[in-house]
Protein: DNA ligase
Amino acid sequence: MKDTLMSDPVFLEMREIAQRLDEANLAYHRDDTPIISDAEYDALKARLLDLEALHPELKDTDSPTGKVGAPVAAGFGKITHKIPMLSLGNAFVEGDVARFVAQVRAVSRDAMITAEPKIDGLSLALRYENGALVSAATRGDGAVGEDVTANARTIGDIPQQLTGAPSVLEVRGEVFMSHVDFEALNARAAKNGTKTFANPRNAAAGSMRQLDARITAERKLSFFAYAWGDMSEHLGATQSESIARLGELGFRVNPLMRLTLSSGEVGKSLVTQLVDYHQEVAHARAELGYDIDGIVYKVDDIATQIALGFRSTTPRWAVAHKFAAERAWTRLEAIEIQVGRTGVLSPVARLTPVTVGGVVVSNATLHNHDYIAGRDSAGNPIRGGNDLRVGDRVEIYRAGDVIPKVGGVDLSARPKTAFPFAFPSSCPECASPIVRDGSSQRCTGGLACPAQGKERLKHLVSRDAFDIDGFGDTMVDTFWSDDALPLRQPVDIFTLPARDEELARNEAPGSNRSLATRAGWGPSSANKLVLGIEAARSVPLDRMIFGLGIRHIGSTTASLVARTFIDWDSFLAAAIAVAEGSAPQAARFRAIDGIGDAVIGALRETFMPGPERNAIEALADELDIQSISAPSTADSSVAGLTVVFTGTLIQMTRSEAKKQAEDLGAKVAGSVSKNTDILIAGPGAGSKADKAAALGVKVIDEAAWLEMIA
Structure:
């Protein structure tokens, strides 16, 4: 029987999903370190539920679809819930809400429903006896929770003593952290060099699970009460009355809770009322000051709740209408222009912080002038042709882990003081003229522009360029405006050791300006930096060309150019000739795969007489630029082929594999296209493998590749 199951693809899929869900439950509920997004978790659980419904004979008795939360973490005492703390069923679209309403109406035709924000925090049960708080427990696995009583006592929203309450009252709600307190906590952590949190939910849950309550007390937490468990007498006949009673007892309850009216009173169906409320709160989400991930609908009448009853892990009388996990509405507070390495002006949206897909988002890319104006690069309307203005309410989305983007704008919420955005006509960093470059605007200042200068230095020291040990972006920022050892030109990096040595020789006692005498440095770290710079003086031609940061010349094109010209002097002479208008040399560059008018134009701009060419020649004088050997293709089986590597390589690094392929005359590309001959796919290959299969590109593994080039 076991052998049969192990060959059943449905059983294997169910087992794999169950394992992923169990791991995700532990990471989220016990360890406060989510490993997948809420959307991915919901999709996996929905898939497993579907498979279990279709194949009940394959359902595991320990399936995660029948569990709530996760077991209690080590280090905490245990508290058994007298009434289990269940989770909620989910609704994602209007049809799901309609099914929930139909289920309720089958029991009660005139049932009213409450709607309230679903707080994204940590569920907590507070037990009061004779008005005194005696215990506080997390949800745990729904039956047994962690004893966090000492931590709960540090939260200002949680009363220590109740007056006029039932003799036994268990109040349930959510511990959360406001956006303001979250930002303050992360700012303190960053200043102290300790762990920062990805979002307020993780911060709140991590704070409640401190074994030392003094740490919890240092982190400002909040609490909303929204339910109850074990109690000696009812708080009211309805959900809304009971919540109001909790407010009277001193608990903080959500003021946004709303009770639906009968359809005749508002002219809207019950489903429409609920969906409208869902959209209304979604739009105001970023301005609440705390995170929510949906709306909870509950039958108001307690007797009807009892009649509807429970499933194994969820009540039938309540449902959580989730927000789209990768989308949220917030306010566009400002549009700032950033100048990149090649001079391209990139507008960035500064947003009222909002959590999107489990990450707090405060910035989003706005691409270019056309995008802000409501057009794509071809002039076609986007967002219905509506422009973006400071003060607008905008929809933010994240596709995977990419930079957040603006998906839409709510014109009904546009302030009267919002005016069309005026793109600058001169560079905000250096005041040089701005020119149109395709769909972008670009500063013409070159290295004279401080923003371009700094970004080019960061590019020069990057991994695929000079890869200077210990010299990254932070180091560039540190020395960019240093009064004693400033870096403003590429050559300044390689004159730094000599300048530091001279500074140390002439340094007055106690001035602490040389590297070895600075706070946080010392002789060892100073020597390490100098050794890294000296080692980088010897640089292969392809890395030198890439490191110059010439527009449109990436690492692959730089490698092809280097293999064409072989040595620095030949490349420099040809590039200068192109800048002077030499048609034969321009044709020589154009003969290289991937080079066209855009690259020729960039070469002319870079190597024409002026500051940029002077900076390049000064840098070259400090270096030993190694020539590139022509690829040996006589016995190569891959010469002339275009190959792409993806996934994890075992026998070598990606850089080693690329160099080896190029030495054999192959062209290594970064993406799969119809021109790709072979895709070498290691473990973890994703979309590239899918695209190769769709295009009919040959796909082999690393072992087959090594055998091919042996």
Notes: DSSP finds 26 helices and 24 strands in the chain. The CA atoms of residues 31 and 607 lie 56 Å apart.
